[in-house]
Specification:
Layout lengths: L3 H10 L15 H14 L6 H12 L4 H7 L13 H20 L6 H16 L1 E2 L4 H6 L8 E2 L6 H17 L19 H14 L11 H14 L14 H26 L11 H13 L14 H26 L10 H18 L33 H4 L2 H14 L9 H19 L10 H29 L7 H29 L5 H25 L10 H19 L2 H4 L4 H15 L3 H22 L5 H22 L3 H24 L9 H21 L12 H6 L6 H30 L8 H18 L14 H4 L3 H21 L4 H15 L3 H8 L2 H13 L8 H11 L5 H8 L3 H14 L6 H26 L8 H18 L9 H6 L3 H11 L3 H18 L5 H22 L12 H10 L1 H13 L2 H7 L11 H15 L11 H17 L1 H5 L3 H15 L4 H21 L3 H6 L3 H14 L8 H14 L1 H13 L4 H14 L2 H4 L6 H26 L3
Length: 1331
């Protein structure tokens, strides 16, 4: 053994043979060390350097000296010496290297040697030697059978590495089913060096080392660990004396390491990220997971432990936890601060380890299918603990124990640091945190067989709730009596973690047990009061901190954890407010009482929330304006998104008592509005915006956000509706409350109207004044966009029974018309006076469009608005006016339309960007779409003719060469016309949308013809492609046959000219890793995406069938003619679709959607492509089948299946096979290796099977040869045999003969193969996927 350390150091300092150092400067010693270490591990450490060095270092440092001295009859040995840093690192690498070598070469080691090494590592990790400290043995304290603990503990990195190695060996030997030689000593060739090392360990270095033998060695292990865990608490009714204290600490250390070992053992069976690699198939891990969880009574399974190892671990941890709790509480009885127990760092470390292993057991994922080892479930352990737990019924007696829960909270009260600055605050804080994690898990136990009935479930929730409330109330009392702790102190950091954990437990209780159970508990009022009080304190302390730093958010301390805690409180409120039991009214009087309690006790938090959040936002804005600082765009977007989410949750809190919340909103607005009006009055006086002005504008904006979220919901994609809580608050028959609530909403609306009117009138006069904030204008428009469609004319069927309250406020033309006119006037003024404010323009058009989609009654009121009529007239005038139009052109356009339009309005609207003009046109078309309304028809025709006339003039001028396409003005006019046509196409939500194809169809050839003039201009090309794409997508289901044919013809011409200039010889740049550059690159290929999407729409079955229909007046278009165009487009795009371009997700998805559809529908056409194009197509399909996106992979696999089936039927690929005869064998090989044998198979299982079946049927003998070649790569004869057997059971001759069959016979074959393939993949992956 001597010289092993030096030999290992020499090996690790020498570069391994054939090693290629990384490029760059000469490798440093660390790089060489890791390369040599990896080489030594991979080559099997033939000279046992890892183990020999481990033994030598420990022996030289005296960790085995006590044993040797005692055996020789000498006196007390000197104490062991501490390890140097270099020795610590060396031992760590020895332990991990030994684990790798033994696990990967398990069969080459003698069973007795493996057990000896396993037990050695366990003993080292636990800190147990044979002789140990003489004083400990002479005093004979503890029933350790002659064993005691080391005086000098090894570094934790070494002990944990040893324990981790031991836990891996225990798992590897848990079942001997994987190896027939594991339990047969004769089957393993005797190794003299192994026998020597085993003898050296057991006879010389460590004669009394604890050994585990035989079939019950696992039970022996748990019994041994149980004795170690119990030893610190034996005969400890009184505090230890000074002479007993060292021995007690040593027992506590060993017990703590025993608990750590149990945590590692559970982690190994779970398959966590820190678990070892065993070089064994998944079936081994599944079996171990199952056996550790449930045990085994099956005699056919060779297993070390017939009983559940998980149950044994839980019993050990809960027994140790009970002893720990009893010990601490006994000390607490004599001292309110916990006595000597909470001052004992060794005890605190032991407690933390015991609680940790208990948490690990409780968070176990039950069932092999729920674990990491079943890839078909698609689940993985992304965090330590699941949200809700469903433990088995057999754990009921251990977990459902109210007395134990009460004792746990008592222990927590004793352990928590509070406001003290104890020297052991770190240890106490860690144990307290783990206790809270344990309580969080106990709060997550959800239903199932573990509770006998709902009453018991409620009582269980009550115990947890009471315990949390007691702690929270004590924290709040401490804060009231002593004030806030200074941020950054140890006590403050521990308190912050404590508060977040406690409110998280309350949130989990709310989510798990629901308000129906919680509201029946006596402590429910305390619960609501505590949430409100804690939330108020957190908000006010955050505001105080923000005031301290004067709004400098970068200098804020402690705000992040407070925001986390507030988010949990809001989540509690959200879960209770939206609970179906309350919202549905099915709860009866109990639900009514619960609602009243929420309204009276929790809703008051809404006021402080709004006050503090708004004030903090003002302080931040004041600071940024003062310092001239600005957030970058990405951070600003993240901040806005987070605020939006928080505001939505806070709105649920405010809706618990709508009337009081509205009073708060009105009060705050009444304080803000006079100052805001005064600010607007100063517009035009000049000067820069001051920090006070910026803060005031931010205050107004935040108030608008609060009001908008309180009164409205985000109804994107849904019919706008008034929130149910607002309806109920304004419901007639509630006395004065309903009148007050309705009046409050009306008053708030009038106040906001006055603000919006005041600002926009100043914008008309002083559009460039910085006091007139575009962001505030955008927020006002956002409020009206959300509020208007919900509250104006609420004529939905579900409101028919509600005629009063908030429904009566704006349900008639007389009450609704002023609001509609106000909104249209507001938008008109912003169109004409802030044309370049993009966000304001977006919100303005969104407001008009949301009103236009509301219904016929609202559209009629919009038509009656003079402002809306003026907007339509402005569109008609400016539809032909470029941005650089001359005054004579403007005058001529105004004269042609007539009316009383102001030149200022026309010039302002003329400056609106073309894309925004197109969106305004969309709004006009939707709002003027009622065919029964003559005024609407006239306005609609005027809007459409205003677009058609200048476009016709442009086309005629270009065709007659009266205008040059190179002229900048002509290009501007073309861009304007194209975008306006695009705006018309996007008006598909209008009433009677069939009129759009009737208008668009005559212009399609001319739009397509523009490509002949502007094919080189990528901007115009992309705009044209977008029009055709959107038109095909929006109206494909309503076009007539002739309209469809016209679209087909125009699209063919468009794609032809586009491909000639933008597909051939186009260079695809490598994708950037920078987020912003990546976005820009995505935009570069938008034209390709549009072309692909257009081809997809053209190829739909409805479209081709429609075009193929002949009439008396025309023959129709054959499907082949349509597919010619689609395949022409596909051929042009194929050379572009390299793996570089396929890295763009959206482009990739649409490309494979097109290819998958075309290959599946027209495989014969694709097979007839020229070989180079066909090869490119095939390469892209092979790339896509292993893509991370399931949709991409399924499309690719379906494409492969279609190609194979077509060749099977017709032999269509014979020509290509003569050029490249391994097409199908390569496809099959890659399919098996890259998909079937990989974990990704489970989200594309059916598609992969349906591709493999025809590929195998094409040439059975070739497939057999391919399987043989694959099996030769496996090495193991057992795996080769199992793989051959699995393929034989999957690929049956009678099934292959019917692959091409149609009808019922073909369906039966496919259904049966699907089942067989599922079993095949499960079987094969269980022994091929290694871990």
């Amino acid at each position: 053994m001597e010289g092993s350390t030096q030999e290992l150091r020499q090996v690790l300092s020498t570069p391994p043979p054939n090693w290629q150092p990384p490029p760059g400067p000469p490798p440093n010693p660390i790089t060489i060390l890791h390369a040599s270490l990896e080489h030594l591990r991979n080559t099997g450490d033939e000279h046992y350097l890892f183990l020999r060095t481990l033994l030598e270092v420990l022996n030289v440092r005296g960790f085995f000296r006590a044993s040797s001295s005692n055996n020789n009859g000498s006196s007390s040995p000197p104490p062991a010496a501490a390890l140097s840093m270099e020795e610590e690192q060396l031992l760590f690498h020895c332990a991990t290297g030994l684990r790798h070598v033994v696990l990967f070469r398990w069969e080459s080691f003698q069973p007795s040697f493996r057990c000896c090494v396993r037990d050695l590592l366990l003993a080292i990790g636990l800190g147990v030697t044979d002789g140990g400290v003489v004083a400990a043995k002479n005093n004979n304290n503890g029933s350790n059978g002659g064993n005691s603990t080391m005086m000098h503990y090894l570094p934790r990195t070494v002990t944990m590495a040893c324990l981790s190695c031991a836990s891996s060996f225990w798992k590897r030997g848990w079942t001997a089913q994987q190896s027939s030689s594991s339990n047969d000593p004769a089957a393993v060739q005797k190794d003299d060096q192994q026998s020597y090392l085993e003898s050296l360990i057991t006879n010389n270095l460590w004669p009394g080392m604890q050994r585990f033998h035989g079939e019950v060695e696992a039970q022996e292990l748990f019994g041994y660990l149980n004795s170690r865990l119990a030893s610190p608490f034996e005969q400890q009714q009184q505090p230890p004396t000074s002479t007993e204290q060292p021995q007690l600490q040593q027992r506590q250390y060993t017990a703590a390491m025993s608990a750590s070992f149990l945590s590692l053992l559970v982690g190994e069976f779970t398959g966590g990220n820190s678990s070892a690699r065993y070089n064994l198939p998944v079936e081994f891990h599944r079996l171990c997971h199952h056996l550790f969880e449930s045990g085994s009574d099956d005699g056919a399974v060779s297993v070390n432990c017939k009983k559940s190892g998980l149950d044994a671990t839980l019993n050990l941890s809960m027994t140790a936890l009970s002893s720990l709790v009893g010990y601490i509480l006994n000390n607490t009885a004599s001292s309110p601060t916990g006595g000597s127990a909470v001052q004992d760092e060794s005890l605190l470390e032991l407690g933390s380890c015991v609680i940790d292993v208990t948490c690990d057991v409780l968070s176990w994922e039950f069932g092999a299918g729920a674990s990491k080892w079943d890839f078909s479930s698609g689940s993985s352990r992304k965090n330590n603990h699941s949200v809700l737990l469903r433990p088995p019924q057999r754990w009921r007696e251990v977990l459902i124990n109210p007395e134990f829960l009460g004792a746990m909270f008592n222990v927590y009260t004793a352990v928590r640091v509070g406001r003290t600055s104890a020297s052991n605050a770190g240890k106490r804080g860690r144990m307290a945190h783990l206790l809270r994690q344990l309580l969080l898990l106990l709060s997550s136990i959800s239903g199932g067989p573990i509770f006998s009935d709902e009453n018991e479930r409620g009582a269980y929730a009550g115990f947890l709730l009471d315990g949390c409330l007691n702690v929270l109330e004590s924290i709040l009392n401490e804060q009231q009596q002593h004030g806030q702790l200074p941020e950054g102190s140890v006590a403050s950091d521990l308190l912050s973690a404590e508060i977040v954990d406690l409110v998280t437990i309350l949130s989990r209780l709310t989510t798990n047990f629901r308000i129906q159970i919680l509201s029946q508990l006596p402590s429910f009022p305390r619960f609501l009061a505590a949430l409100c009080t804690m939330g108020r304190w957190l908000l006010e302390s955050s505001l105080s901190e923000c005031q301290r730093v004067e709004g400098d958010v970068e200098s804020l301390e402690g705000v992040e954890w407070k925001n986390d805690a507030i988010a949990q409180i809001l989540q509690c409120s959200d879960a209770m407010a939206d609970d179906y039991w309350l919202a549905s009214g099915s709860g009866g009087q109990e639900a009514v009482k619960a609602s009243q309690a929420l309204a009276s006790m929790l809703a008051p938090l809404y006021g402080p929330y709004c006050t503090c959040r708004i004030r903090m936002a003002c302080l931040e804005e004041h600071y940024m304006a003062r310092e001239g600082a600005e957030l970058d765009e990405i951070r600003e977007e993240i901040s806005a998104f987070g605020l939006e989410e928080e505001m939505a949750s806070a709105a649920s809190l405010g809706r618990l008592n709508v009337l009081e919340s509205m009073k708060i909103m009105l009060g705050m607005l009444q304080q803000c509005m006079p100052r805001l009006m005064s600010l607007f009055e100063g517009a035009g006086l000049g000067g820069e915006i001051t920090p006070d002005m910026a803060a005031l504008l931010e205050e107004a904006r935040m108030l608008l956000l609060c009001a908008g979220h309180l009164l409205t919901d985000d109804c994107a994609g849904e019919t706008p509706a008034i929130p149910e809580s607002v309806i109920q608050a304004c419901q007639p028959g509630r006395g004065l409350d309903d009148v007050s609530c309705t009046a409050s909403i009306a008053a708030l609306l009038e106040m906001l109207k006055s603000v919006a009117e005041a600002q926009v009138m100043k914008v008309v006069t002083y559009p460039a004044d910085p006091r007139l904030s575009p962001l505030l204008a955008k927020t006002l428009l956002w409020f009206f966009r959300r509020w208007g469609p919900s509250y104006i004319l609420p004529n939905s069927d579900e409101y028919r029974e509600n005629t009063g309250g908030i429904f009566g406020a704006y349900s008639t033309a007389e009450t609704a018309q002023p609001l509609i006119s106000f909104c249209t006037t507001l938008c008109l003024l912003y169109f004409c006076h802030w044309p370049q404010e993009k966000e304001v323009q977006d919100e303005s058009t969104s407001l008009l469009l949301s009103l236009g989609k509301k219904g016929a009654f609202v559209r009629e009121l919009m038509l009656n608005s003079p402002s809306f009529q003026k907007t339509a007239a402005l569109h008609s005038v400016c539809a032909s006016l470029r941005h650089n139009a001359s005054p004579p052109e403007i005058s001529a356009a105004m004269a042609a339309i007539g009316g009383d339009l102001s030149i200022d309005f026309v010039r302002g609207y003329q400056r609106v960007p073309y894309a925004d003009r197109a969106r305004i046109l969309t709004c006009l078309v939707v709002a003027c779409s009622d065919m029964q309304n003559e005024k609407a028809n006239a306005m609609l025709n005027g809007c459409l003719k205003a677009v058609e006339a200048p476009f016709s003039t442009l086309i005629t001028a270009l065709g007659n060469k009266q205008a040059s396409s190179k002229d900048i003005n002509v290009q501007e006019s073309a861009c304007l016309s194209i975008l306006l046509y695009g705006g018309i196409v996007l008006a598909s939500e209008m009433s009677e949308p069939e009129r759009i194809p009737h208008f668009i169809t005559p212009s399609l050839p001319h739009l397509s013809g523009l490509m002949t003039f502007y094919a080189e201009d990528l901007t115009i090309c992309e705009s044209l492609l977008k029009i055709f794409r959107d038109y095909a997508e929006q109206y494909i289901n309503m076009m007539t046959r002739d309209q469809s044919i016209d679209l087909f013809t125009a699209s063919a011409s468009l794609l032809k000219h586009y491909s000639e200039h933008h597909c051939q010889n186009r260079v695809v740049q490598k994708r950037s890793k920078d987020v912003e550059e990546e976005f820009d690159e995505d935009q570069k290929y938008n034209d390709v995406l549009c072309a692909i999407q257009l081809l997809i729409h053209l190829g739909t079955k409805d479209f081709t069938n429609l075009c193929n229909t002949a009439t008396s007046s025309s023959k129709g278009v054959e499907t082949g003619q349509i597919t010619d165009v689609i395949f022409f487009g596909l051929q042009q795009i194929l050379p572009l679709m390299t793996q570089g371009l396929l890295q763009y997700p959206t482009l990739c998805q649409h490309y494979f959607s097109l290819v998958g559809f075309m290959v599946e529908t027209y495989p014969e056409r694709l097979c007839a492509l020229p070989f180079d194009l066909f090869n490119s197509l095939l390469d892209s399909l092979l790339f896509g089948m292993s893509h991370s996106d399931p949709l991409v992979s399924k499309s690719s696999l379906q494409g492969l299946a279609s190609l194979a089936k077509e060749h099977l039927k017709t032999g269509v690929l014979a020509t290509h096979l003569s050029t490249k005869n391994d097409i199908f064998s390569n496809c099959t090989f890659r399919l098996i290796q890259e998909v079937v044998f990989q974990p990704i198979i489970w989200d594309r299982l059916e598609s992969a099977g349906m591709a493999l079946l025809p590929l195998a049927a094409i040439d059975v003998q070739q497939f057999i040869g391919l399987v043989n070649a694959i099996s030769q790569q496996l090495g193991s004869e057992d795996k080769k045999h199992r793989l051959h057997t699995a393929f034989e059971q999957l690929i049956k001759p009678e099934m292959l003969a019917k692959v091409g069959a149609e009808g019922r016979e073909g369906r039966i074959v496919r259904v049966q193969f699907k089942k067989d393939f599922d079993m095949f993949v499960r079987d094969v992956q269980s022994f091929l996927v290694m871990k």
